[in-house]
Fold this sequence. Notes:
There is one protein chain. The chain has helices at residues 2-11, 16-21, 24-39, 68-84, 109-117; strands spanning 43-49, 89-95, 98-103, 122-127, 130-133. By secondary structure, it is α+β, with helices and mostly antiparallel strands. The relative contact order is 0.19.
Amino acid sequence: MERKKAELEAAGPPDVRRLSRMDPHEARQAVANAQASGQGGPTMMFVDLKPEAGQSGVNQEEGRTWFEDDLKWISTQWMDLLKTAGFDVTLYNIEGDRLLASIQKGWLGDDIRNFFLTRPEVSMVTWNGVETNSLDYVEL
């Protein structure tokens, strides 16, 4: 992890010529990530869950599809998986189908965002003001 931070610091700011060849969404994300990695401190991202993926079905009384127990279960599962991989992430339920991910080492945000986008329960991740739809994400 420290090696990745050192690589980011050594790379410096993004190459403008490379950014001009990217599609606008990818360029915006690259600039936002470079700014976030420059601070090197904590960051956060929002994880929107697919309503139909709720484990217990539709919660008609509260108008949402994820019960509190479902959110606790999936949050614990994801935090354990991320901790096993060496990432320090805490997940909080902030709305019915939305989680807040608090990341202590902001320069690892790319890897954590990619993790969330590969989960079948996730519809979208918002990080540094850039929304990434899981359907648009292609794992390399």
